[in-house]
Fold this protein.
Amino acid sequence: MRILALDSSGLVASVAVVEDGMTDDQVIAEYTVNYKKTHSQTLLPMLDEIVKMTELDLNSVDAIAVAAGPGSFTGLRIGSATAKGLGLALDKPLIHIPTLEGLAYNLCGSSDIVCPIMDARRGQVYTGIYEFEGNCLKVLEDQMAISIEDLGKRLVGYLREQERRVTFLGDGVPVFRGVLEEKILHGQNIAFAPANMNRQRAASVGTLGLQYYKEGRTESAAEHQPDYLRVSQAERERKERLGND
């Protein structure tokens, strides 16, 4: 089985091809860029480069896994549009991967409670709380948009009850690390993922996609819609204007 994976949900753009084998899964190729370019400039050229380098016939792909939100509204639209276009052109199903689950899967096999955080602005984070049973991702609290203070309160309960460490990752870490360490979770058993694991990776989206595909968790390209979790700033401003009229 072969999965093409895309992630443009945050600051990082990432494309990967993942296969399952007789004894283990493997990443055939991964192209990840965390730089000051828009995903509309990078995603398709990255895919094209992977196709050339691996001599990949896109028709050999069984499904397309896409990080489907939450995240950057523009990034999600670009990723979803790319996945939908490929799915329709190739007549392949899509695998809808919640962004925070894909990000958490970077730490597959960890014994820690895993807490990815993405900066959602306005003092909030997109987050979820997870743990692993072997290679199986277990959702303790589904992805949500909440304040960093509210997240801290939820995590204190896990830290007290289970006496385990919480590991954070994601683009929210550089924004909130100081307040987490010095105030919200001061003195608690917390850690932060290293550079090779702390941002979105399509290889994780694709590996998780292999599992979800085997579980029958697919959708058609026409059915796919990203999960924004909250309305965009433009929509909020429009509602405020209408409310003042």
